[in-house]
Design a protein that fits this description.
The protein is an alpha/beta fold and 391 residues long. Helices cover 44% and strands 14% of the residues. It folds into 3 domains: 196 residues, 3-Layer(aba) Sandwich (Rossmann fold); 74 residues, Ubiquitin-like (UB roll) (Roll), CATH 3.10.20.600; 79 residues, NADH-ubiquinone oxidoreductase 51kDa subunit, iron-sulphur binding domain (de novo design (two linked rop proteins), Up-down Bundle). Helix 12 packs antiparallel against helix 13. The chain is globular. The relative contact order is 0.14. It binds flavin mononucleotide and iron/sulfur cluster. The site of flavin mononucleotide has 23 residues, from strand 4 and helix 14.
Length: 391
Amino acid sequence: METAEAKNFKKVDIIFECQDCKPIEVLDTNLQRKPDDIILDIIDSGLKGRGGAGFPTGLKWKFTKNESAEPKYVICNADEGEPGTFKDREILDRVPEKVFVGMALCGYSIGAKEGIIYLRGEYNFLLKDLNKKLEKFNKQLKERNLDFAITIKSGSGAYICGEESALFESMEGKRGEPRNKPPYPTSEGYNAKPTVINNVETLVYTTMICNLGSDKFKELGTKDSRGSKVFSVSGDTPIAGIYELELGMSLGTFVEEFGDGDTKSVQVGGASGHCVPRKYFEDTIIGFEGIPTGGSMMIFNSTRSMYNVLHDYLEFFTEESCGQCTPCRVGCQQLLEGIEAVKKGERRPSYLEDLKKLASNMNLAAKCGLGQSVANPFNSIVDNFKEEIIY
Ligand SMILES: Cc1cc2nc3c(=O)[nH]c(=O)nc-3n(C[C@H](O)[C@H](O)[C@H](O)COP(=O)(O)O)c2cc1C
Ligand code: SF4
């Protein structure tokens, strides 16, 4: 990981506070432009998906637009199931119109008529207000003769339904299980039709890029991580909450700002992310060139047992694995039982090396991102906090 480009700490107010953004005016202005010009702007901005995987958003729109199959869909992924992530809820609560406009401009750009927000089941308390605002927004779209409308579909509380292909299955009324890839959603997504699926925050940034221009967006961040990002900060911090920050700072800078003076590790990217110990804070860049994150930053101080942290994560993955493929279904269970056995002294400490190999094999053999990413927390916690796991 490089430090050369590490940025200073910088709070940004693009998503929540930006005073000169009236979403409906952004829509009006951009409906005067050619769809391809909007897509080119999003490509030029360098915006990468904020849901975790970081795929370039403009390219996703372009690939979907280039497909000949009809109809096309725009899906907003508001499942937000990653432990420690709570920023999409806040965005949908405070600035939903910016999400709607991002979806509408995507629909206009790619030639889709239907947009659907897949809303985490636990966020159903937002439904009434969102539906009311959508009713008004859909009417405004009609008045502008834009053949596009947005509806909401409620999720049912499964973490795996945030994975895009499982999300499509769930939306189609089936059990939420990931599909094989390829085909990718841009060619065969919802109802096996070309689909753009973007995270809530990604869609807001598309609205803001259409408002401020891609050059303005590129002024923030680094070459590989353009712009800013909304972080959900939790754990041992006196100032837990939601913050929009410029990408590319070091984790050391982050901890200086948010830690309680006794931070021993930060779990970057939720349960499926990496655990970074204090000795690597300065060398770790928060961004796609270092450690990417969908937004979850969990801070642990020296009172925390990293065994308990890892145990909690493994219980979570064991519970949430859809069970479709053996490496994940059996692997999660084996890792959980494995560290329990080491902790009780029933297995030697060297058994942890076997478990690490199992986690790495899961990364290679599991069908979807859930099973593939279990190695991130497992190997990083075992490597750095082995003494807290052994008997
Ligand atoms: C197990 C799992 C859960 C996921 N949960 C979410 C989620 O809650 N929200 C989200 O936006 N992306 C989630 N993703 C990523 C999506 O599959 C997809 O990459 C994302 O919605 C694409 O949007 P983006 O390009 O704007 O980031 C998850 C992925 C996996 C493997
Ligand atoms: S990796 Fe896990 S969650 Fe993904 S398909 Fe396999 S069993 Fe299901």
